[in-house]
Amino acid sequence: MKIRLRNYFVLLPGLSLFLITITIPILLSPRDMWDGVVIAFAMEQNNYEGIFSYFMESNWIFQYPLSILIIELSKLFSLGYKDMNAIFSFITFVFFLNESRIFSSKLLRLSKFENTTLILLISTFPVWGVLFSSIM
């Protein structure tokens, strides 16, 4: 299987839009928004009992280990939880866009223009700001 770099250039406009509209504003905000404050506080206090009960009572059982992973990564790289979460979300979105590109080109057989348009539409979907907030 040969990887061609030019196949990935279709992702650049979408990644740029996502970086400008979602990731950079989250990184530039002075404090956390949404419910991520709870997780950031747990990280500062080094006490995760509150977020454990918060996630388990909400039936978000997979969110707790993910939050602990992001907390540990943020400690490893000496970043705040909010910043590490934004970086983690961006990396996750890169993989998601790549899978969307593969799906649309191989299974849907879209042209390059249609594929790029789809990637741009996915990248500018307004819900990403909420889905990639600190709590998710």
Task: Tell me about this structure.
- The relative contact order is 0.19.
- The chain is built from seven helices and no strands.
- The protein is mainly α and 136 residues long.
- Helix 1 (11-28) packs parallel to helix 6 (112-123) and helix 5 packs antiparallel against helix 6 (112-123).
- 69% of the residues lie in helices and 0% in strands.
Q: Report the helical percentage.
A: 55-70%
Mean pLDDT: 82
The rough form would be described as elongated
Contiguous uncertain segments of 5+ residues: none
End-to-end separation in angstroms reads: 34 Å
Largest sheet: none
How would you spell out the order of helices and strands?
Answer: HHHHHHH
Rg is: 17 Å
Tell me the β content: under 5%
Helix segment tally: 7
Total strand count, please?
Answer: 0
State the secondary-structure class: mainly alpha
